[in-house]
Design a protein that fits this description.
This protein is an all-alpha fold. It has helices at residues 8-26, 35-59, 67-96, 111-122, 127-130, 139-177, 183-212, 220-238, 260-273, 284-290, 295-305, 310-326, 336-342, 348-359, 363-371. The chain is elongated. It comes from Neptunicella marina.
């Protein structure tokens, strides 16, 4: 009778390994302006391929394992699993920050993986010991190996949570500095990072359940990771290139280039005389340059005097411009979409959302009410 080497879980792992390798190679031919994001994403996919290969070699006892593999697999598996977190964090930063470049100080995030690998070496932990299923394992070695398994689960979760906070601060900063942002791309990025947090939180919970109740549901982690793998690739192709980049450095307070009233007067000139809000892609730096003020001062004044951020401030004036068009019968020949574009909006969804929120009615309802 033929012995079965692979079960369904192994098939999922094999698919994940193959897809990860293909996606890693694919990054080298993917045409993007951001070289760092391609390299980081390729490294992330490669780390998944190595980690999944390690999982299969460690837990599939039917596979023939050479003496060399028995020794080195825990090292490769552990290192690949632990660097996934920092790689995702840096990938998120590379696609959201203007002029991003990895720093030497950032290498500290790879220190935990090196420490854990060092422990594997110090205690001479091979695949057999790594499984923790041998009788008579020395107590210190057992404890260390168990702690390594928990580190493998908890450290990536910590970094995925960090990646999620990076998305939050990115969304906050980019909205405060730009009049138009690609909300769909931001929502996707939120969804991806939240999914990684949830999947690894699930893995930690399964580890707890396995230790306390002996429940054998750990394989579901592999299925979730396979889905995330495909989702991340889809996002990198379809959405990440459309993200509005945040500035690398953020001002904390106003400078001393002028009084608050002087800054407010300049902002009003930019709105009332120059009508800078009609520029569909204007950001706070372009706005500030046009009125000879610093972006720091403008951001501070808008927040202090108008109680809002640049994104809301500019779009509220665009809504007023739309209302002017819709209230005048001589523009009845223009479609609402054309009017929104003339008023500075370049996204139909954001226009409709802002207009409904600020007026309490849809653009078509507003036009009808003015015609009565």
């Amino acid at each position: 009778m033929t012995e079965l080497y692979f079960n369904l879980n192994d098939v999922i792992l094999i698919l994940s390994i193959g897809v990860s390798l293909l996606l890693s190679v694919f990054q080298s031919v993917f045409n993007t302006k951001n070289t760092y994001s391609r390299v980081l994403l390729a490294a992330f996919f490669l780390s998944i391929a190595i980690a999944d290969t390690g999982i299969m070699l460690i837990w599939n006892e039917h596979l023939p394992i050479s003496h060399l593999l028995n020794i080195i697999v825990p090292y490769f598996y552990t290192f690949a699993t632990l660097i996934k977190g920092p790689l995702l964090v840096y990938y998120v930063k590379s696609i959201t920050q203007d002029k991003f470049s990895p720093s030497v100080g950032g290498l500290v995030h790879f220190l935990p993986s090196l420490v854990i690998v060092g422990l594997l070496y110090a205690f001479n932990i091979d695949i057999n010991l790594f499984r923790l299923d041998q009788v008579g394992i020395e107590h210190t070695t057992y404890f260390t190996t168990d702690m390594i398994w928990w580190a493998i689960k908890i450290i990536p979760l910590t970094y995925f949570c960090y990646a999620l906070t990076c998305v939050y601060f990115y969304q906050r900063d980019v909205v405060s500095d730009n009049s138009e942002v690609n909300e769909a791309a931001i929502i996707w990025l939120y969804a991806i990072t939240i999914a990684f947090v949830a999947a690894n939180g699930w893995a930690v919970m399964l580890g707890v359940l396995a230790n306390v109740f002996g429940l054998p549901y750990g394989v579901t982690e592999n299925y979730l990771n396979f889905i995330l793998l495909i989702s991340l690739f889809f996002y990198s192709v379809s959405q990440s290139q459309q993200l509005t980049l945040a500035r690398s450095s953020k001002p904390k307070q106003a400078s001393t280039t002028g009084s608050l009233q002087h800054i407010i007067d300049g902002i009003n000139i930019g709105i009332e005389q120059k009508k800078l809000y009609l520029n569909q892609s204007i950001n706070i730096e372009q706005f500030s340059d046009a009125i000879d003020l610093s972006a720091r001062d403008v951001s501070f004044a808008i927040n202090r005097e108008f109680g809002t951020n640049f994104f809301e401030f500019i779009n509220s004036h665009r809504v007023e411009e739309v209302k002017r068009y819709l209230s005048n019968s001589k523009y009845n020949h223009m479609s609402i979409l054309d009017i929104s574009l003339e008023s500075g909006f370049n996204s139909k969804s954001s226009f409709q959302r802002f207009f409904k929120r600020l007026t309490g009615m849809s653009p078509s309802e507003f036009r009808s009410s003015r015609a009565e």
